[in-house]
Amino acid sequence: MAQVSALLQVMIGAARKAGRKLSRDFGELENLQVSRKGPADFVSKADHASEEIIFEELSRARPGYGFLMEERGRVEGSDRTHTWIVDPLDGTLNFLHAQPHFAISIALEREGELVAGVIYNPASDDLFHAEKGRGAFMSDRRIRVSARRHLEECVIATGTPFFGKKGHAQFLKELHKIMPHAAGIRRYGAASLDLAWTAAGRFDGFWERSLAPWDIAAGIVLVREAGGFAGAIEDTGDVMDTGDIVAGNEHTIAELRRRLAEAG
Fold first, then answer.
1. CB 157 within 8 A of CB 188
2. Strand 42-44 to strand 34-36: parallel, antiparallel, or no bridges (unpaired)?
3. CB 26, CB 100: distance < 8 Å
4. CA distance 214 to 107
5. According to DSSP H, which parts of the chain are helical?
6. How do the residues of the chain divide into helix, strand and coil, expressed in percent and rounded to 5?
7. Are 33 and 45 within 8 A, CB to CB?
8. Which of 22, 100, 176, 239 lies in the 20 to 30 Å Cα band around 125?
9. How far, in Å, are 74, 173, 185 from residue 153 at the CA level?
């Protein structure tokens, strides 16, 4: 692995430890007790177990830091300048259907700025990490965003709101505007990995709306440190507040924003 700071070592250690538990659960899907908490929004024992491990590991390593977590919500710490932003299992639906495309996502926000991110897929052992000013890596290999300039050459990732959810009709309009002009559209069901793959050049761009902070925080750090752009679709407001994100290099970003604006 590339030389990493003490901070990233803490984050990677927490992700790997939680990942070992997820891997064991992934191998025993038939034994998982799963509850449904809303349409297309599942939570399993695996989510909670992973989150508990990450919470304990990060709390031990950095006492006082606050948390923003998918299941636990916001946990205030005595140190109000640092907040861990955690998704313990992004791609839960994939996980529950034995599809090996899911991830743990951990980011650190310092005084309102995202400064570090780790995204780890235990099924593939793909580990992405980045720290502000130090570049982005997949394990020990430096990664960079794609250099493609024209949308017709690009594979673009996105997320599909389930039918009936607010924004579904808008998504179909946007898809209609982008699909005819791109080489391909992919929907894999884990926004954190979509962003990590964009940082690594596997995808040339990504857009999605109404995401939560824990879905995108670590991925934003990765894309930016890989030489790309990750921000709000309309370039207004804070993407961490709106959850409407677009990512890629400067050329794909400009084209995606233009096409999305045409969708109205």
1. yes
2. antiparallel
3. yes
4. 8
5. 6-26, 45-61, 92-96, 168-178, 191-199, 213-225, 239-242, 250-262
6. 40, 30, 35
7. yes
8. 239
9. 41, 21, 11
- What values do phi and psi take at 108, rounded to 5? -120, 130
152 token code pair: 């017709």
Amino acid at the residue 230? A
DSSP H stretches of helix in 70-162: 92-96
Locus of tokens 């670590």 = 218
Instruction: Return phi, psi of residue 89, to 5°.
Output: -160, 90
Dig out the tokens for 254 from the structure: 């400009």
Residues near 163 by Cβ (< 8 Å), separated by ≥ 6?
Answer: none
Cα dihedral value 41, 236, 247, 222, nearest 10:
-80
Question: Taking a C-beta distance cutoff of 8 angstroms, is the pair 153, 142 a contact?
Answer: no
CB 86 within 8 A of CB 54: yes
Per the CB < 8 A criterion, the answer to whether 117 and 222 are in contact is yes
Task: Specify the amino acid at residue 70.
Answer: E
What is the reported pTM?
0.94
pLDDT in tens, 185-231: 999 999 999 999 999 999 999 999 999 999 999 999 999 999 999 99
Contact (CB, 8 A) for 47 and 139:
no
Distance CA(207)–CA(30), nearest Å, equals 34
* pLDDT tens-digit series, residues 125-154: 999 999 999 999 999 999 999 999 999 999
| Cα torsion 144, 142, 113, 65: sign | positive
